[in-house]
Amino acid sequence: MSLSCKKQTNKPSLPESFVYLDEINPRIITNLRYLTKENFMNQKVIGYEANRVILTKQSAIALNEAWKEFNSRGFNIVIYDAFRPTRAVQNFVSWAEDKNANQINKPSYFPYIDHDKTFDEGYIANRSGHSRGSTIDLTIINSDKSLQNVVRINRTLSDGRQILFLDDNTLDMGSSFDLFDKASNTLSNLVNETAHQNRLLLKNVMEKNGFVNYELEWWHYTLKNEPFPDTYFDFQIK
């Protein structure tokens, strides 16, 4: 899968009020991890057929405003996930309930919890805000750098535990996207001061532009006044 942010030309139809982000800002980098095996399930997730970000129009416009501020500070946005079909959420649920589930990526994504405990810990839910179309998993990267394939690096948290840091050349947030651990809590004291400040930079700019952070995950933001607060969609990403 290409890590390019180049605008795509094909235009599959979307439900009303949804847009492809690359039609608003093609410079934002898209790296949908659930389209690949680089995720906690170690498999492509049902419903992901293209490396394109889909969002409600309101959240896409707000994100573009956040991008303008990041860009003025020398950063670009990298998106790991945005709209998530409900069929993908069910794929997560089935994996968590399967005693024989693929756990090859356990050391990278859930080293200290059992895969069937991801519900109890709040990392997987039966219904995901992503399916409402205004939630984004993202980070930032220096504008003069390019996204790279993940390189796993051993890292020691402040409590002495070891994790694998998945370095993809984005700004160091202390832990990686989708690490199911307290180290991923936005204000966690398990990461160093540099990572803490990087998380606050992301948080401050996103909140300034109308998004709310999910406190358990530094990368997870939802538009405060999302247009579909009670509606969950199930169209494919293609």
TrEMBL record:
Keyword Hydrolase on entry: yes
CDD domains: D-Ala-D-Ala_dipeptidase_VanX
HAMAP family associated with the record: A_A_dipeptidase
BP terms from Gene Ontology: cell wall organization; proteolysis
Superkingdom field: Eukaryota
Keyword Transmembrane helix: no
Keyword set, alphabetical order: Cell wall biogenesis/degradation, Dipeptidase, Hydrolase, Metal-binding, Metalloprotease, Protease, Zinc
Entries under Gene3D superfamilies matching the protein: 3.30.1380.10
Matching SUPFAM superfamilies: Hedgehog/DD-peptidase
GO molecular function: dipeptidase activity; metal ion binding; metallopeptidase activity
Source organism: Brachionus calyciflorus
Name the UniProt record assigns to this protein: D-Ala-D-Ala dipeptidase
